[in-house]
């Protein structure tokens, strides 16, 4: 089969998404966001899974319609197996199984984190192998050596919290509405990144740790509010700029070390936090200084989306790595190499 047509489904957290890929070309990327979590200040797993159940049929139907495809034309169904919220994953896995069984076509399971990395192959420019990818999101912070489309090696990761969680929790401490990470980025553009300083968590090697900075930030706000109750309101831009610069410096420090240790100067970023303007700017500056070849995905391919599941599924289809109907979602799925 020279031109496989694959339907890909993403439901790992609070985005219901579907995408059609034909012969390695992504035709669309339909995403339905969930607004129900905003009043709770974070994703509520049970509500997320219910919203997926309500949205998945219409999202898949829109993907097929906008691509001009009929269900009978599909050659395979792909889905996110993990990592993610178990209830949310279960909706996508069950829907994909039902379609594959009904159409008598193969299933393709996709690792969500591997898909973030492979989002770089949706459009040009595409990195050459091997390359180093800094994958940063709400649930993960990893340094990955990418040997080829289906062979990846994690050489560093967070020992506790992810950088995206640090952004979101800090935003919540400042009473920003959910999701607060992008708001920190927006306010930081108008602030002084050197206005305030925060402690640095020293972890040997290529691993990360962000739990300490969250605690330090909590005490920082508490102590300053004692003398000035309107401290956050008055210094909002400078606080955001300083915190963002500190977190970006923490990941850039490890990224530089990874380049030194591996000798790989083809460097990419992926994941939701890859949309952060401070990180993108810092990476570009470092690339200009050190001669790195850098790759940054389009914003729509940074956050959770089915287009990245589709491109990963395409390479699995080519390699004939099909999944069994016995496959189950895995909330803590890891990159196996």
Could you explain the architecture of this structure?
With about 325 residues, the chain is of the alpha/beta class. Helix content is about 40%, strand content about 20%. α1 (about 45-65) packs parallel to α2, α4 runs parallel beside α6 and α7 (about 230-260) runs parallel beside α8.
List strands and helices in order, with pairings.
Layout: E1 5-10, E2 15-22, E3 25-26, E4 30-33, H1 45-67, E5 76-82, H2 86-103, E6 107-111, H3 112-118, E7 131-136, E8 141-148, E9 151-157, H4 163-173, H5 181-188, H6 211-227, H7 231-262, E10 266-270, H8 277-290, E11 293-295, H9 306-318
Parallel strand pairs: 1-5, 5-6, 7-10, 10-11
Antiparallel strand pairs: 1-2, 2-3, 2-4, 7-8, 8-9
CATH A-level architecture of the largest domain? 2-Layer Sandwich
Q: Give the name of the CATH superfamily of the largest domain.
A: ATPase, nucleotide binding domain
Mean pLDDT: 95
Gyration radius from CA atoms, angstroms: 20 Å
SSE class: alpha/beta
Straight-line N-to-C gap: 27 Å
Low-confidence region ranges: none
Q: Might you state the CATH topology name of the largest domain?
A: Nucleotidyltransferase, domain 5
Number of helix segments? 9
Shape descriptor: globular
Topology pattern, helix = H, strand = E = EEEEHEHEHEEEHHHHEHEH
Biggest sheet, open or closed, and with what strands and sense?
6 strands, mixed
Assigned CATH class of the largest domain:
Alpha Beta
Count the beta strands: 11
